[in-house]
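Narrative progress, year one. The postdoctoral researcher (J.K.) led the effort to move from monomer predictions toward full complexes, under supervision of the PI. The following entry was the first complex the group processed end to end, covering 655 residues in total.
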Amino acid sequence: MKVLELTNVTKEYTQGKMQVPALRGVNLSVEAGEFLSFAGPSGSGKTTLLNLIGCLDRPTAGSIELAGRELAKLTPLELARVRRQEIGFIFQSFNLIPVLTAFENIEMPLVMLNRFTPAEIREKVMAALEEVGLAGLESRRPAELSGGQQQRVAIARALIKNPKFVLADEPTANLDSENGQAVLDLMARMNQKNGVTFIFSTHDPMVMGYARRLVRLKDGRIASDEEVDRHAKAN
Amino acid sequence: MPRQINYYVRLALKNLARHRRRTLLTVLAVAVGLWAFIVMDSLLAGVDRDSGRNVIDLETSHVQVSAAGYFAHRDELPLDKTLAAGTADSKLIKMIRSDSRVSGVTSRIRFAAQLNNGTDEFPVVAVGLDPHRDPEVFTLTDYIVAGRKLQNGEYGASLGKKLAELMELKIGDSFTLVMRTAANTFQAIDLEVVGLVNSPHPMVNTGMVFLPLDVAANVLGLDGRVTEIDLRLGGEEAVDRVTKDLRSSLKSSGFNVDVSSWKDLSGSFLAISQGKRLYNGIFLGLVMVIAAVGIVNSVLLATIERTREIGTLKAIGMNEGDIVRLFLLESTGIGLLGGIVAVGLGIATNLYLVNVGIDLTSMIGDMEVGYPINGVIYGVWNWTTMVVAFLFGLAICPLVGWWPSRNAARKDPVEALRHA
């Protein structure tokens, strides 16, 4: 089932009096449950593309249809609601709220959804902590966790509301290879277990190796779009 | 929504605790402003209360009855508008006494004079008073610090202590009082200083001479007549009612008189009092501007420091309203803490002001400040002011925090997330 459709998407930024193109006519279709990576060097448009899909930005031209909704037609309030209900974000620098504990960081999206009782929230958060291997660390603040642990909290925060998409911008860039692999394993497991569509960006070949679909970007255009047979690769 | 609010309140409190020193300084700025307002209000109310008491006890009494037309010219101290009330058995005084709300009645002659000590001359207000009946209404005798009380028929006088010092007079010395009589002729009498008065009313201390009523009436040619009848009431709350009732009852009995309350007679003092209230309001405004700058600065700094967090919150799904709410809760927290600290400090300071007071003599000495009070000024408990100060702090903080909060909420999430 198609959950995301980008048609001829262009994004330009204004720098002084210059219009700088970041994306030039991108066309992309994503099915539910994909584990897709945008790959490419810095400045190729990966983050811009993630921002547009994540309803954080609007394209200069073209259309983005996300879960059946044309994003250009949504008001800022509606875009915020889409982000709150359907999209989970994982950031390169984890972006946890430093004054909140791991538990409180993870519960935030559920509180914002305003659908669950405190008991239900507690149950879900504890299960999520267990799932990401952080059981017993719920009272720690981000500064008391390692980088890998912080990113696990961020993954739990992104997944706790059972979103349609998880968007991850260079999720392992600030982690050592061991922690990076652990985080990618976790993301892959969550993708398979929950069927959540994962779209992430990277320029790290190791991370690309985890993707089941690899979309390479160059100068704001899709240079290649290929399915990856991980089993074949592993063999 | 309540669960969200709970969460936001928790987050706001944690954010306030993030930079404890900055939060503390902002809270202190708000608290000091509100505290100053509470203290100022307490002192001004205390000054009003004590000044009013001094005016009543030493200058005007609660209610004054004078001849028709005297009130309009009272500042000129005229002697051609007098009442036949020199003795306690006069018909007018008997009628006034018949009102059960009146607890004391006395008569006085107030006139302009020059005090001459043989070397210098000084303009004074002279008052002829009945030594026996005057204490029913006025408290002058309570403040005699040297010598004795006046006696009927004697050519003696009580002076304000500062006036005596100025004119280099002491108990037993004589001076000459020069005046115009009711017939507008010059008259001079020699009086012996028999008492010195040091009251809390500066005008009494610095510019008044008291002599026996019968002597004053005699030298002024006002046999059996006085310029005013002064009334003491059982309670101050009855002043307006008694004034009104006496006006109508005396008029219907054929007395052509002016009946004035102490408030009518102290218009200028009350005008100053009103002015003080305005001044206190302006003061509160100024202090709160300073506090507001602190709050704006604090919230602004927080929004800059937490730019990336704002981006993250937006990515997670907060809208502009949620982010404004979050920062407003933080400003409200500052207002709440500031209010609590201010009221706490206000109560502690007021305990001192009400019970010990501030001795003005150590600050301004014997200098006159144009207000019927000197010596120690005391505070007054005014819980309404404390509630107002607390609510003001609670309201002003989110009000001034709104602008930086809104700016923070409007940040572009992409830019915010990119912020280092």
